[in-house]
């Protein structure tokens, strides 16, 4: 092995580590407000609103105008490129509004998925070209963390070894480049919930994917203390006939993470996938009550699961703005509690009653 | 990805996990008494005792017949093949003596190194042939864990990618086979201390090696909760002119483990690798006092660092039995304290305790 060539100085490492810890401070999680123009089209059409830049701006304003109550439950907000350069009605850039609340600003940097030839419809994610220059600019413009989403799916022959290897590698390249520019990379290897596979299958695949991701991060000399992980929870496929409790989902999820995610990673911020707002909160809560030892923060990076109620309360109407903002604050506070295992709502998982539903971990 | 074929049943997993936890419970560690015939030859020569089977048996008998309270410090003993089938002078099997004291019996399984052609003197480890049958027999004969030592060195172009990959792969194969036969595999990827490299270089190499080991274990479907890790501490090379404190060694060591060893691994039992008895204890203590979070037990699996004083006290004479036992028990208790971060340096340890036990290019 040749001489060591440190990728980062001690100061660079400290900066990255501090940013990561701020985002996942106890009780805090991330608002994923980085929907692309195309994704926003879907959201807005569901509430009968036209997908214009102005409407997208107004909608994000509904979220960002939340009052100081979100300071204790939101540690970071992920922006889409367009939004990073938009302002509120008061002329204050959204970036400043968020930073003034003590919340870290993040930016989506991937450029979407592309097909992997010779596979069963699998993809990798593009966006590496000129990434260093883009990161340097985003850092100047107020971003301190970034997000890059890779996608894998479960079927008879997927994810294939190629898809796992390629997506892990591209995530590691992205992470390395971010860190060179003072940006904390959120690493997102999402395994879609599409399919009829059961919980065990998802756990098995998740463990394989995460092991590959962390090997790639090691190979690319990524400083783990200055990263965050954004994985799927371990759940059955949407079409799976068996139902599982939040405790089973929690046990499978935490087992998978314990076997693959080094303790140096400061935080795991789950994506909500297709879960409803309440489901996403209840599952996160169960995860934080799981009796297995958990050396990282376990919190949220939710898009739909934080915004669904706010979106439908807003319906594009100015008059509905404060009601919509309230809906968002409500979900943010609930998830802040869930990130500490303190959420008592939902009925199913109330205190001691929920504990007995955990199954002995050796079965996972 | 092909359908999942579980490597182990829930019952098998539970058995392995229980054994592993028992070995490292409450500050207990491991006595590595598995020196091969050749290696015992080196040890006995130092105290001018002839290397006969009877002498080897006598020395082991003295150690194993100490008072039962030894089981508060020693959770497991690794035996060499010959020793597993030896008895004390009353005709009682050593393995039964140990088990009755509540100590788990382990067995060395590797069969030494073989050169890797095209490298700078690097090796792979043999022993996979017929390993499953050997494990099954050892399990019947009283063993509940195995040990396999891979060796990597820091030198020009070393460790090479090939050496890392090949040794990680063999360790994973060995671990998989052990678990199929109800034996907990101790995974030992030793980066030897020969050389003049500094602490940082050893840390860099150790991180790469451990990342490769855990990727290989994952690839081979090894159940991490039913394994133990036996790594080197992160130290400078023996010929390094810069000196480091136990706290520096501790921080480098725990940081390395933090970045590579999943929390699912129940225990990490360090090898002593030529450190004096006292240094091995002081370093282990500093490791357990290190302020980083430590989700695994951090204990010892010491050979030389538990036996040096005992050997010197024995000198091959039966009359020295009591002194030999006292010397051994003293080190065992000291290391148990260190494994809980409670060791208080006595300051009056004998000369043998402070003597460096370094042997260049140490092989068993």
In words, what does this structure look like?
The complex is a heterodimer of chains A (364) and B (364). Chain A has 364 residues and is of the alpha/beta class. Chain A has a single domain, classed as Aldolase class I (TIM Barrel). Helix content of chain A is 43%, strand content 14%. Chain A is built from 13 helices and ten strands. Chain A has helices spanning 10-23, 37-46, 53-64, 81-84, 94-100, 131-140, 161-180, 199-219, 246-258, 277-289, 304-314, 321-338, 352-355; strands at residues 29-33, 74-79, 104-108, 113-115, 123-125, 145-152, 184-191, 228-229, 267-270, 297-302. In chain A, strands 8-7-6-3-2-1-10-9 form an eight-stranded parallel β-sheet. Chain A is globular and about 50 Å long. Chain A starts with 9 loop residues before the first helix and ends in a 9-residue tail after the last helix. The model of chain A is unreliable at 348-356 (pLDDT under 50). With 364 residues, chain B is α/β, with parallel strands linked by helices. Chain B contains 13 helices and ten strands. The A-B interface holds A 1-4, 154, 156-161, 164, 200-201, 204-205, 207-208, 211-212, 214-215, 218-219, 224-225, 255, 258-264, 293-295, 360-363 and B 1-4, 10, 13-14, 17, 154, 157-161, 200-201, 204-205, 207-208, 211-212, 214-215, 218-219, 224-225, 255, 258-264, 293, 295.
Q: How would the global form of chain A be characterised?
A: globular
Give a short account of the largest sheet of chain B: 8 strands, parallel
Q: Which CATH class of chain B is shown?
A: Alpha Beta
**How many DSSP E strands of chain B?**
10
Count, helices of chain A: 13
Helix-strand category of chain B: alpha/beta
User: What is the CA-CA span between the terminal residues of chain B?
Assistant: 41 Å
C-alpha end-to-end distance of chain A: 37 Å
Helix and strand element order of chain B: HEHHEHHEEEHEHEHEHEHEHHH
Low-confidence stretches of chain A: 348-356
Number of spatially distinct domains of chain A: 1
Strand content of chain B: 5-15%
Mean pLDDT across all residues of chain B, rounded?
94
Q: Please write the string of helix (H) and strand (E) elements of chain A.
A: HEHHEHHEEEHEHEHEHEHEHHH
State the share of residues found in helices of chain B, binned by percent: 40-55%
| Strand percentage of chain A | 5-15%
What's the number of helices of chain B? 13
Give the biggest sheet of chain A: 8 strands, parallel
């Amino acid at each position: 092995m040749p001489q060591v060539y440190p990728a980062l100085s001690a100061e660079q490492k400290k900066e990255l580590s501090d940013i990561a810890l701020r985002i996942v401070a106890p009780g805090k999680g991330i608002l994923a407000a980085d929907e692309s123009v195309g994704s926003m089209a879907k959201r807005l059409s569901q509430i009968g609103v036209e997908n214009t830049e102005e409407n997208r701006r107004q909608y994000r304003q509904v979220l960002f105008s939340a009052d100081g109550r979100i300071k204790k439950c939101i540690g970071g907000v992920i922006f889409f490129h367009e939004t990073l350069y938009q302002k509120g009605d008061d002329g204050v850039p959204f970036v400043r509004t968020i930073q003034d609340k003590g919340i870290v600003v993040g930016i989506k940097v991937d450029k979407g998925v592309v097909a992997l030839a010779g596979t069963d419809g699998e993809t990798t994610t593009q966006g590496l070209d000129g990434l260093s220059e883009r990161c340097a600019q985003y850092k100047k413009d107020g971003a301190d963390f970034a997000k890059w989403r890779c996608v894998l799916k479960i079927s008879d022959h997927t994810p294939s070894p190629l898809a796992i290897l390629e997506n892990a590698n591209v995530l590691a390249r992205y992470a390395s480049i971010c860190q060179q520019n003072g940006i904390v990379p959120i690493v997102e290897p999402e395994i879609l919930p599409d399919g009829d596979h059961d919980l065990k299958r998802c756990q098995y695949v998740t463990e394989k994917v995460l092991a590959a991701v962390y090997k790639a991060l090691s190979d690319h000399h990524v400083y783990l203390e200055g990263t965050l992980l954004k994985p799927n929870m371990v759940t059955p496929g949407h079409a799976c006939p068996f139902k599982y409790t939040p405790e089973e989902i929690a046990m499978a999820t935490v087992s998978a993470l314990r076997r693959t995610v080094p303790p140096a990673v400061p935080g795991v911020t789950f994506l909500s996938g297709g879960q409803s707002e309440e489901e996403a909160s209840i599952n996160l809560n169960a995860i934080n009550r799981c009796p297995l030892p958990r050396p990282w923060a376990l919190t949220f990076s939710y898009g739909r699961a934080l915004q669904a109620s706010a979106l439908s309360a807003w319906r594009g109407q100015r008059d509905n703005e404060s009601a919509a903002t309230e809906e968002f604050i409500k979900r943010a506070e609930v998830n802040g509690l869930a990130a500490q295992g303190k959420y008592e709502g939902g009925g199913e998982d109330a205190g001691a009653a929920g504990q007995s539903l955990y199954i002995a971990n050796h079965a996972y | 990805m092909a359908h999942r074929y579980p490597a182990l049943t829930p019952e098998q997993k539970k058995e392995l996990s229980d054994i592993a936890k028992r070995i490292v419970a409450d500050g207990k560690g491991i006595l590595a008494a598995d020196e091969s015939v050749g290696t015992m030859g080196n040890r006995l020569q130092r105290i001018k005792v002839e290397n006969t089977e009877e002498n080897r048996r006598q020395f082991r008998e003295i150690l194993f017949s100490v008072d039962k309270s030894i089981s508060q410090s020693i959770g497991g003993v690794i035996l060499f093949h010959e020793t597993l089938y030896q008895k004390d002078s009353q005709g009682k099997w050593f393995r039964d003596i140990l088990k009755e004291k509540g100590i788990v019996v382990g067995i060395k399984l590797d069969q030494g190194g073989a050169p890797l052609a095209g490298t700078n003197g690097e090796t792979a480890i043999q022993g996979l042939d017929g390993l499953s049958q050997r494990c099954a027999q050892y399990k019947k004969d009283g063993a509940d864990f195995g040990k396999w030592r891979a060796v990597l060195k820091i030198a020009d172009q070393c460790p090479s990618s090939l050496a890392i990959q090949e040794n990680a792969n063999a360790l994973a194969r060995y671990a998989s086979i052990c678990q199929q036969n109800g034996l907990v595999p101790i995974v030992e990827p030793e980066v030897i201390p020969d050389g003049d490299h500094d602490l940082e270089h050893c840390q860099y190499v150790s991180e790469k090696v451990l990342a490769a080991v855990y990727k290989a274990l994952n690839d081979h479907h090894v159940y991490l909760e039913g394994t133990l890790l036996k790594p080197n501490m992160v130290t400078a090379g023996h010929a390094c002119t810069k000196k480091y404190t136990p706290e520096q060694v501790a921080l480098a060591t725990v940081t390395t483990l933090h970045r590579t060893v999943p929390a699912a691994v129940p225990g990490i039992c360090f090898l002593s690798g030529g450190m004096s008895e006292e240094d091995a204890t002081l370093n282990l203590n500093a490791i357990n006092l290190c302020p980083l979070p430590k989700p695994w037990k951090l204990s010892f699996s010491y050979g030389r660092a538990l036996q040096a004083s005992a050997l010197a006290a024995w000198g091959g004479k039966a009359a020295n039995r009591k002194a030999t036992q006292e010397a051994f028990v003293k080190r065992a208790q000291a290391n148990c304290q260190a494994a809980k971060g409670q060791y208080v340096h006595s300051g009056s340890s004998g000369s043998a305790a402070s003597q460096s036990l370094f042997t260049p290019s140490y092989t068993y």
